[in-house]
Amino acid sequence: MTNTIKEIAGADFIFAIGTNTTEAHPIIGLQVKKALRSGATLVVADPRKTEMAEMAHHHLRIKSGSDIALLNGLAHVIIAERIWNKEFVETRTEEFEALKAMVAKYTPEYVETITGIAAETLKEVARGYALAPNSTILYTMGITQHICGTHNVMAIANLAMLCGQIGKEFSGVNPLRGQNNVQGACDMGALPNVYTGYQPVTDETIRAKFAAAWGVAELPAKPGLTLGELFDAASEGSLKCMYVMGENPVLSDPDALHVIHALEKIDFLVVQDIFLTETAEIADVVLPAVSFAEKNGTFSNTERRVQRVRKAVEPAGEARDDWEIISMVARAMGYPMRYSSAEEIFAEMAGLTPSYAGISYTRLDQGSLQWPCPTPDHPGTKFLHAGKFSRGLGRFHPVEYVPPDELPDDDFPLVLSTGRRLYHYHTGSMTQRTEAMEVAYPEEYLELSAIDAEVLGISDGDSVEVISRRGRVEVTARVGDKVTQGLVFASFHYPEVAINQLTNPARDPISKIPEFKVCAVKVARIEKKMELVESKKVS
User: What's the angle, vertex CA 382, arms to CA 380 and CA 383, rounded to 5?
Assistant: First the structure.
């Protein structure tokens, strides 16, 4: 996030796009509700009628995958009506003319044909965002999990810069991270092309710095593979071993049957986790890790806030800290990785990472800090890009709308989108082990519009089969107005409804993130099961 979570409550205008905030990020959802109580305007762009959408002044029920057209349409109106922040654009950005030329064709009327959003509504939203004293944009994986996910983010950045709604309090571009330390994992270099603090592996000077710290002659200059590329390589036979930590790709990755096939094909699979997940069940070796309550360390959350984690209970059995397990494996392989504590590792990292250089356990014992925090006397950074961007001038990136990779047709006439439910988390490896959550939300269901249900002869509560080009799953139908005609929705929390066996592995060419949010499916009532139920009733 460019800004802090609490700043959301002070925004005058909140544009939430591709985020089901109150369910996926309920604590941040509270800040949205505070803003509304203070008189803020909320606009939600989402094909589904979520709780956020029901609170909104404008619910833009866009067609799945049409975000760029919507964002370009907003920019078009703002430029056409000359309500952009001219001083900000002139002094702090470049390539404005290129953006202006590109969005010229995205008239409200043209955008309506792509998104389904009425032209007059688009104009009203554009004016509201541009003219509010402080506007903030919230987004999550409803923006990034598309074949054009990177360009979706660029289009959001274009809008924020165009209106000068960045680099100041209560504004900004704020991606909401989906897990408690996913920001920290990325900060620590858990990406195939960077070291800690997003320092590129292709930079010779940076490689030399890390090689010296780790006592090795040299480090690879070539970026590694992304998650989807790893499974492709495993399936093709060029990858022989995989080490999976705190991840359950058998349920969480797209085209999950392909993932299972890839994992079964490799020579050696290691899983390091706190539970025996579906992925761990097919591993050659399972290494028992500890939960957050059993270890010391830090988490870096979605607002770049680094916080201490302190051990509350002793680990059970042979479970060990992740860093201890990795060190033991490294030593067994011949590299003398010897650390005495998480604090020692953090100190080494901070010494190699400019954005964390001023953070230490001593300071964190007094309270959390937000990076960048470059020196020991730096207070941390509340919001980014104040005064100037890290690259100097902010660059507009004109991006064109492209349709999703897989569109409905006669064989697969519906669009499936996936996401999260309030009561469960990710693949359910933790929340489905708690009886309270099972009572609150015991099974998954497929959201289906009343119009589509009538055409398909499906009633609320029927068992249905959802079929894509990659697989099929059985699930209970929930008929209503949550989704529009032509769209169905389910979460990926339930192993018995392994919805990611259906989703499309087509990827964004830049970020390599798969298109979870749009795939073509067909839905049919399961006749045999229903006939059996009816026969039992008669007997």
Answer: 125
3-state SS, one letter per residue, for 186-212: HHCCCCCCECHHHCECCCHHHHHHHHH
CB count in 10 Å sphere of residue 127: 15
Whether the Cβ atoms of residue 282 and residue 168 lie closer than 8 Å to each other: no
pLDDT for the residue 210: 97
Compute the distance between CA of residue 418 and CA of residue 271 in angstroms, rounded to an integer: 26
Catalogue all structural domains in the chain, each as residue range(s) with its CATH number. Answer: 6-176 (3.40.228.10), 182-370 (3.40.50.740), 414-538 (2.40.40.20)
Q: Taking a C-beta distance cutoff of 8 angstroms, is the pair 489, 447 a contact?
A: yes
Beta-strand relationship, 173-175 and 135-139: parallel
DSSP 8-state secondary structure symbol assigned to residue 536: H
Q: pLDDT per residue over 438-496, tens digit each?
A: 666 667 889 999 999 999 999 999 999 999 999 999 999 999 999 999 999 988 766 67
Q: Return the pLDDT at 259.
A: 87
The closest of 78, 129, 130, 123 to 100, measured between CA atoms, is 78
Strand partners, 476: 445, 463
Report the alpha-carbon distance of residue 45 to residue 124 in Å, rounded.
14
Asked if residue 117 lies in contact with residue 106, where contact means CB atoms within 8 angstroms, the answer is: no
* Single-letter amino acid, residue 372: P
**262-266, long-range: CB < 8 A, 24+ apart:** 262/231, 262/232, 262/234, 262/235, 263/231, 263/234, 265/234, 265/235, 265/237, 266/234, 266/239, 266/240, 266/241, 266/242
Q: Which residues contact 495 (CB under 8 A, 6 or more apart)?
A: 251, 278, 427, 428, 432
Amino acid found at 88: F
Q: What angle do CA 23, 24, 30 make, to 5 degrees?
A: 65
Which pLDDT does position 491 carry in this prediction? 83
Give 233-288 pLDDT, tens digit per residue: 999 999 999 999 988 888 877 777 888 999 999 999 999 999 998 899 999 999 99
| Pairing mode, strands 487-491 and 414-419 | parallel
DSSP 307-369: EEE---SPPPTT-B-HHHHHHHHHHHTT-----S-HHHHHHHHHHH-GGGTT--HHHHTT--E
CA nearest to 487, candidates 414, 538, 407, 403: 414
CA distance 366 to 376: 13
Residues sharing a CB contact under 8 Å with residue 316, sequence separation 6 or more, in sequence order:
294
